[in-house]
Amino acid sequence: MAMKIRLARGGSKKRPFYRIVAADSRMPRDGRFIEKLGTYNPLLPKDSEERVKMDMERVQHWLSQGAQPTDRIARMLEAAGVLPKKERSNPNKAKPGKKANERAEEKAAKAAAAAEAAAAPAEEAAAE
């Protein structure tokens, strides 16, 4: 059985609240799970101790049994010092999008046109 440590959503509409659970990977997100390992409340401030609560002994147990944490849970475990920090690389994150590229091209074209317009009278004055 492929085990995952993942988030199961609770809470009402626009008021998310998550349980951290150990579940079979084939089960639905909010469906059947084997054990509740903690809670995560994203509405609380980031420095609040109540934001993420986990039973670390049980988390360690499930990790030793081969359970794979999801990306979000892995980040929480890295912050808690349970997992080593993983190097992440997203080279496209810093690149501007299509609209920003179009605006930059328009700005460059206007600057070039303004430079040509400013240079033309100067050339005429030098020729005289």
CATH superfamily of the largest domain: Ribosomal protein S16
> Which CATH architecture of the largest domain would you pick?
2-Layer Sandwich
Structural class: alpha+beta
H/E element sequence: EEEEHEHH
Provide a quick synopsis of the model:
The protein has 128 residues and is an alpha+beta fold. The chain contains 3 helices and 5 strands, in the order ββββαβαα.
Topology:
Elements: E1 3-10, E2 17-24, E3 35-40, E4 52-54, H1 56-64, E5 68-69, H2 71-80, H3 98-127
Parallel strand pairs: 1-5
Antiparallel strand pairs: 1-2, 2-3, 3-4
Explained architecture:
By secondary structure, this protein is α+β, with helices and mostly antiparallel strands. It has 2 domains: 3-80, 2-Layer Sandwich (S16 Ribosomal Protein, Chain: A); 90-128. It is built from 3 helices and 5 strands; from the N terminus they run ββββαβαα. It has helices at residues 56-64, 71-80, 98-127, and strands at residues 3-10, 17-24, 35-40, 52-54, 68-69. The protein has a 5-stranded mixed sheet. A hairpin with a 6-residue loop joins strand 1 (3-10) and strand 2. 14% of the residues are buried.
